[in-house]
Amino acid sequence: MLIIGITGTIGSGKGTVVEYLVEQFHYSHFSVRKYLTDVLKSQGIEPNRDNFTLLANRLREKNNSPSYIIEQLYLLALKNGQNAIIESIRTPGEVEKLRELGPFYLLAVDADRAIRYERIYARNSETDNIGFEKFVSDEEREMQSTNPNNQNIGACIDLADFKLENNGDISNLKSQIDQILETIHIRNSNG
User: Fold this and answer.
1) CA–CA distance, 124 with 77 (Å, rounded to integer)
2) For residue 83, what are the domain limits?
3) For residue 2, how far is the Cα from the chain centroid?
4) Torsion over CA of 63, 69, 74 and 79, rounded to 10 degrees?
């Protein structure tokens, strides 16, 4: 079983990468966002970005593991037995744990900040209905931390095996994904 992790900045196109991998390459999809949404709803708490962050950090700290959530999703993927995508990797501890469990590759998705804000504004989901200042503040909070239980997307991007720049159109993004998957499949068959 091959695991592909997805990390990246807010609004960069992580979901689009996941959709393409699921539709074209038949990967199973396991989402941190869905996992956290289910927990929040079971507690009667509104699922929004601030509550996602608080809950995720609390779960990691409570379970004394920066990779706690990812470990739960990995167990689901293992039970499923198919190649899988785990979206969204947010701490270096999650990356390290998945590398231990291997084979694992981390893809990081990024785009210019203005493009990303336009995307989240256009999708108009309940968690993305925010002003530009809040968008920037959320991103800065999530990009780095010295606490291993808190989000550190910047460090995860630095740890990525492959980086996708999503400033262009969808065909450009799909072409990048195709090239990355070809490389991954070659590495796995040699290895």
Assistant:
1) 30
2) 3-190
3) 16
4) 80
State the total domains in the chain: 1
Q: What pTM did the predictor assign?
A: 0.90
Identity of the residue numbered 140: E
Q: Encoding tokens for residue 96?
A: 């390290």
- In a 10 Å sphere around its CB, with 0-12 CB exposed, 13-18 middle and 19+ buried, how is residue 30 labelled? buried
CATH at residue 73: 3.40.50.300
pLDDT tens series, the chain, 191 aa: 999 999 999 899 999 999 999 999 999 999 999 999 999 999 999 998 889 989 999 999 999 999 999 999 999 999 999 999 999 899 999 999 999 998 999 999 999 999 999 988 887 765 667 888 988 888 888 888 888 888 899 999 999 999 999 999 999 999 999 999 999 988 887 75
Token pair 């190649």 in the structure block, residue? 83
Handedness of CA 51, 52, 54, 59 (dihedral sign): positive
